[in-house]
Amino acid sequence: MTATDRSIELVTTAAQAAADKLAHDIVAYDVSDVLSITDAFLLASAPNDRQVKSIVDEIEERLSKELGAKPVRREGDREARWVLLDYVDIVVHVQHSEERVFYALERLWKDCPELDLPEDAKATRGKAAEHARLREAEEATGPGGEWR
Fold first, then answer.
1. What are phi and psi of 17, to 5 degrees?
2. Residue 85: strand pairing partners
3. β-pair partners for 83
């Protein structure tokens, strides 16, 4: 079994919404062969809690306006470290970058086929690592760019 056309439409729209809000490392997996509860997982991350919330809100708004889809469940919103949006056909995981590294959901689903995403979403691959390098460089230098 493969993900339905509806699931792919939801994933594509959600991935574009996440990319528009500058999410990092957006990836989607077709989990329909290994799970009976959903067709696809969409994973995205952000470097801070505020951005996690912004990404989640944009995904939810876009799916509602463009496709008439509303999540049956939304979890993790209060802490904004790992927010899950369950649309039955797909499940969206938006994680803080630290949670993304710690839980490494990609390892769990690496044997499942990746779904094709919009170019903007594909372009986010590696952004978390790039952001971490820039942050480390900023912490190693003073305000004027001088090494501490």
1. -60, -45
2. 74, 92
3. 94
Greatest extent of the chain over all pairs of C-alpha atoms, in Å: 57
Name the burial class of residue 131, with classes exposed (0-12), middle (13-18) and buried (19+) by CB atoms within 10 angstroms of its CB.
Answer: middle
Q: What is the pTM of this model?
A: 0.87
Q: Rounded to an integer, what distance in angstroms lies between the CA atom of residue 100 and that of residue 9?
A: 24
Confidence check: pLDDT of 120 > 90: yes
Q: How many CB atoms sit inside 10 A of residue 94's CB?
A: 32
Helix (H) or strand (E) holding 74: strand 73-75
User: How many percent of the chain have pLDDT more than 70?
Assistant: 85
pLDDT (tens digit per residue) in 57-104: 999 999 999 999 999 999 998 888 999 999 999 999 999 999 999 999
Q: What is the pLDDT of residues 11-31, one digit of tens each?
A: 999 999 999 999 999 999 999
Burial of 6 (0-12, 13-18, 19+ CB in 10 A): middle
